[in-house]
Amino acid sequence: MSDPTETNATAAGEQAADGAGRRHVRVVLVDDHRMFRTGVQAEIGQTEQTGVEVVGEAADVDQAVTVITATRPEVVLLDVHLPGGGGVEVLRRCAALMADAAQPVRFLALSVSDAAEDVIGVIRGGARGYVTKTITGSDLINSIFRVQEGDAVFSPRLAGFVLDAFASTDAPPVDEDLDRLTQREREVLRLIARGYAYKEIAKQLFISVKTVESHVSAVLRKLQLSNRHELTRWATARRLV
């Protein structure tokens, strides 16, 4: 597990603090898995120790926009794949809040996905950083405060995606086969192609093994493949692994 790489330091470099001089940040958690939100809350939400105050949670796009607008947190931890349009839709509908010079709401993507298209999509949408769910609690807390300050924060491998994307003027080609898959099916596809067992995928995505099996069957059917070995070759050829 790697520490997130942090760039674009603010000029002032000062952290928000409470009256006692301790740093403090108000956060909203946006993720469609209740168990994951509960785990993050337990890990970072002990305000006296961490300085992080979780002021709201949401499980889909509409809930997220409502909660963020009502609470005006400094930082939103945003999952990429959400019912109702995904993290990019949340960013689009919260554009005015991000642009508020007096009280900006900043977004840090926190996702199981480390796919280039997911990273680039939310960064283009206005997120200040992107870290994966393998991050440690202490690193996540540090990343939240860095984003609060205005820094950009990325897990090391993901930073390269962003640099490559913004250095290139070429639009990525459309993959009609990949477009047939839902976001969740893409997540399962990548994990299967990396050699994960069904139980491991279920644990990482907070879903049942039966649901994993259903997603795999759907992927094989849509791509007209016969087994996970063909699926792995298909994903490798498209550099999705």
From TrEMBL:
<feature type="domain" description="HTH luxR-type">
    <location>
        <begin position="174"/>
        <end position="239"/>
    </location>
</feature>
<dbReference type="InterPro" id="IPR039420">
    <property type="entry name" value="WalR-like"/>
</dbReference>
<dbReference type="InterPro" id="IPR011006">
    <property type="entry name" value="CheY-like_superfamily"/>
</dbReference>
<dbReference type="Pfam" id="PF00196">
    <property type="entry name" value="GerE"/>
</dbReference>
<dbReference type="InterPro" id="IPR058245">
    <property type="entry name" value="NreC/VraR/RcsB-like_REC"/>
</dbReference>
<keyword id="KW-0597">Phosphoprotein</keyword>
<dbReference type="InterPro" id="IPR016032">
    <property type="entry name" value="Sig_transdc_resp-reg_C-effctor"/>
</dbReference>
<dbReference type="InterPro" id="IPR000792">
    <property type="entry name" value="Tscrpt_reg_LuxR_C"/>
</dbReference>
<protein>
    <submittedName>
        <fullName>Response regulator transcription factor</fullName>
    </submittedName>
</protein>
<dbReference type="GO" id="GO:0006355">
    <property type="term" value="P:regulation of DNA-templated transcription"/>
</dbReference>
<dbReference type="GO" id="GO:0000160">
    <property type="term" value="P:phosphorelay signal transduction system"/>
</dbReference>
<keyword id="KW-0805">Transcription regulation</keyword>
<dbReference type="InterPro" id="IPR001789">
    <property type="entry name" value="Sig_transdc_resp-reg_receiver"/>
</dbReference>
<feature type="modified residue" description="4-aspartylphosphate">
    <location>
        <position position="79"/>
    </location>
</feature>
<dbReference type="Pfam" id="PF00072">
    <property type="entry name" value="Response_reg"/>
</dbReference>
<keyword id="KW-0804">Transcription</keyword>
<feature type="domain" description="Response regulatory">
    <location>
        <begin position="26"/>
        <end position="148"/>
    </location>
</feature>
<keyword id="KW-0238">DNA-binding</keyword>
<dbReference type="GO" id="GO:0003677">
    <property type="term" value="F:DNA binding"/>
</dbReference>
